[in-house]
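Annotated sample (chain length 166).
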Amino acid sequence: YVHALYNNDNTLINSIKIINYNIHDVYSPFPIHNLNNVLKLKKTNLSFLSFIYGLLGFCIACILTWYTMIWDWPQNIGGKPSFSWIRNIPSFVPVIFELTIFFSAHFMCITYLIQCRLFPGRVPKNPDPRTTDNMFLLEIHTEKNTEKLADLLKENGAIEVLIKKY
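Output written by the structure step:
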């Protein structure tokens, strides 16, 4: 591993553009604009999963309202006929909306925790605690030319460069 610490996000971005190594990860105290494009990361699938979870919540809400108010225990509430789900759909809209949002939000939280590998009891992966305050860390996995890479990183604004063995 080669860890390079920076104190400025612009210096970090410029250094990433200059060096020609495979960058494993970047640690930052805040999101850096355009970092995904510079690292050539693929687009996340979280928005698609959010839609799927909302659709699941919508379907379960429709089944729940139909089952509870039409099939299992039909009642005449406020003069509304309860023999048809389609005729009663306006009164079910709040329940359907709330369950759609509920499913989408809760499953998105679980999906985010799984994708970030933030399981309970897991040891944090952050190699330097200063990256949670004011520093930026560039992590490169390489075993060849580490001294040359360290010199290149220092020339391009790295404050501190650490070389660690696997």
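Annotation: Strands lie at 2-6, 23-27, 136-140, 160-163.
Annotation: Helices lie at 9-18, 35-39, 46-72, 89-115, 146-155.
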